[in-house]
Structure formats: C-alpha cells, structure tokens
C-alpha cells in the first residue's frame, strides 16, 4: 500500500475507535462508541499492508494494518493462499482448509478463520459491513466481570475453544452449537446468499418493465436496454454459479469437509500432545509397575482413538452447506427464468437491422 493510500486509511483506521461494532444498534449506527474493538492503525507500515479486523469467540476484536508476513506468521498459511484473497482472484469463490485455518473467499468476504478467531480483510468496506454486524451479534463481547462471576458458579462450565457458556434461562433443552469456524462460515454464506438474492430481485424489478415495453414497441432504444440488462444478468449468473459450484465441490468430498473441522483438529492436537507427555513421563518414571504402565498406556490410546473416531463425521457441516446450496439453486432458477425473457428479446432484436 502506497503512502498516499496510507494517509487516507490511517485516519479511518484510527477513527474506528469511535465506531460501534457491537451490532446492538445495527449497521446504520456505526458511528457510536466502540468499547470492544481496539485499533492499531496509526503506525504506517511498508507497502502491502492492508486493513484487517480480528474477532474471537468472546467478542474481543481489533482493527489493524498488517502486511502478508504478519498474517502468515499469525495463522501459519503460505503466501500462495493469501493471493486467493487478493484482487487477482476477486471474482472467484473458494472455501479452503489449510492446516489450522480456513481460507474463505466469497464475493466481497475475504477472511481467514481459525478455531479461535476470524481475520477479516477490509472490514470498513460498505459491502462487508453487514458481515461485521452479523459477527458482532453472534459473538457479543463477554464482560470479564461476567465471566468471573460465571466461573464462581460450579454449575456453569468455563469456556474452551469452540464452546460457549450456556445462558441460564436457556439451559433446559440446550443444543450443541456449531464450532466457532462453522458459525463464522454460516454467517458469511448467509450474507453472501442474501446479497445475491437481493441483486437478482433488483435485476428482475428493472428487467420486466423493459421486456414489457419491448413487447409493445420493438425499437432500437428498447433493444439496447434489453441487451444491457442481459449482460448484467449473465455476469450475475456467473457469480452465483461460482459460489454454488464451490459448495457443490465441498459436498461431493467428505475428506475436504472433514479438513474444515478446525476445532476438532485443535482438540486432537491437544490430545496427541497430552499422549506424548504421558508416554514420556511413563518412560522416565521407572518406579511404575509394568501392569500400571500398561494400564496408563491403554487408557491413553483409548482416549486418542475416540478423539479420531469421528474424523469422518461431517453431518453438521454437510447440513449447513446443503441448506445454502439449495438457497443458491433457488436464486439461480430465478435468474434463469428471467433469462428466458431476455432470450425472447434477443430473438426480437433480429427483426430490426443493426
């Protein structure tokens, strides 16, 4: 990022300390006071630094300027995966599992999700604000005093990665929530699908009167309007198709879906580390009897096996993706029905010489 751009971005980034990302007052009240989002945008960085917002499951967030090396170090992904979020791939759609992270490139949403936090590129862009607002509502800031009070209550478990403190009023019939990474993915898909559906509705609202006018009066002017709308429709259909195809690709591959379970992998890594520690401790502690040693190793192996037993269980993610795949199918069908009207208009255009 050049110096001239930083001169524009830095005041904006600093001003985010006065912006409300709580979601309590919605997108239209982004000028409120921000109490849970710190900003580190005052210091200029070298070229390539871009504006990012981080948010964790407890609602803590900050808006910062990071270059590629800082991002790569934070989430442990290679540079080639960051290029997916760049302008060259702005028209592509990708949901990729990369070790401990998920790279999400859906329309205007460019994000990197881990089991503990989401890193969102260009959070102040107008199109991205609905996503920020939804994240704020889904992950409200948890007061440290409230967490401490909850910790004093032995009936309420403390939070861990991918888990939440249950609300006392809703304790009965409490259902297991999706892990953090899938909650973020669900919000991203909801925002993108809503945006695309709204774009189709706007196009239909504009197209049908033009087609009606063409039916009454086949003129060069009306035909040009139809051709212009047809071009817009084709581009919009291609965008919908790309998101739909990406979901279809994931639904067709259980292994790819399993790799997106970041919280599960995080837990398994912790179990493996614990196993290694137990084995190492047992090998160094010569005072343990052989039966006791065998019992410890057996129980540890059983724990690890159970942690890996559900590796191929992707039902939660499959249901999530299937729901939005069907929604995109409906949006796609709307635009295809509209395309039939434009096809009729193109046939009529042959009546009038160019």
Automatic annotation (TrEMBL):
The record ties this protein, via PANTHER family, to:
MAGNESIUM TRANSPORTER MRS2-4-RELATED, RNA SPLICING PROTEIN MRS2, MITOCHONDRIAL
Report keywords, A-Z.
Coiled coil, Ion transport, Magnesium, Transport
Provide the membrane topology annotation.
Answer: Multi-pass membrane protein
A GO biological-process term: magnesium ion transport
Gene3D superfamilies of this UniProt entry? 2.40.128.330, Magnesium transport protein CorA, transmembrane region (1.20.58.340)
- Its name, as the record gives it, is Magnesium transporter
**Main localisation:** membrane
Q: Which organism is it from?
A: Amborella trichopoda
The superkingdom listed in its UniProt entry is: Eukaryota
Describe the task this protein carries out.
Answer: Magnesium transporter that may mediate the influx of magnesium.
């Amino acid at each position: 990022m050049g110096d001239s751009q930083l001169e524009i971005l830095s005041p904006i980034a600093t001003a985010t300390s006065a912006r409300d990302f709580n979601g309590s007052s919605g997108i239209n009240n982004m000028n409120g006071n921000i109490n849970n989002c710190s900003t580190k945008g005052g210091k200029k960085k070298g070229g390539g630094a871009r504006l990012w917002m981080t948010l964790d499951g407890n609602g803590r967030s900050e808006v910062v300027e990071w270059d590629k090396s800082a991002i790569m170090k934070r989430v442990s992904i290679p540079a080639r995966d960051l290029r997916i979020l760049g302008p060259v791939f702005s028209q592509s759609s990708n949901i990729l599992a990369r070790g401990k992270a998920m790279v999400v490139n859906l329309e205007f949403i460019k994000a990197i999700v881990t089991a503990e936090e989401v890193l969102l590129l260009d959070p102040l862009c107008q199109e991205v604000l609905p996503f920020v607002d939804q994240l704020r509502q889904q992950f409200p800031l948890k007061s440290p005093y409230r967490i401490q009070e909850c910790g004093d209550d032995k009936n309420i478990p403390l939070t861990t990665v991918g888990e939440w403190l249950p609300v006392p009023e809703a304790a009965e019939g409490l259902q297991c929530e999706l892990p953090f990474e899938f909650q973020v993915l669900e919000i991203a898909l909801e925002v993108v699908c809503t945006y695309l559906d709204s774009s189709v509705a706007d196009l239909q609202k504009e197209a049908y009167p033009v087609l009606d006018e063409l039916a009454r009066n086949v003129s060069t002017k009306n035909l040009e309007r139809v051709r212009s709308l047809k071009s817009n429709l084709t581009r919009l259909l291609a965008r919908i198709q790309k998101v739909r195809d990406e979901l279809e690709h994931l639904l067709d591959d259980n292994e790819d879906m399993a790799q997106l379970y970041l919280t599960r992998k995080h837990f398994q890594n912790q179990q493996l580390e614990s196993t290694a520690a137990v084995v190492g401790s047992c090998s160094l502690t010569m005072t343990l009897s052989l039966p006791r040693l065998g019992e410890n190793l057996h129980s540890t192996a059983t724990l690890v096996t159970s942690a890996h037993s559900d590796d191929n269980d992707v039902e939660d993610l499959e249901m999530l993706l299937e729901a939005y795949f069907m929604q995109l199918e409906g949006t796609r069908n709307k635009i295809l029905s509209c395309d039939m009207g434009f096809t009729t208009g193109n046939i009529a255009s042959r009546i009038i010489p160019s």
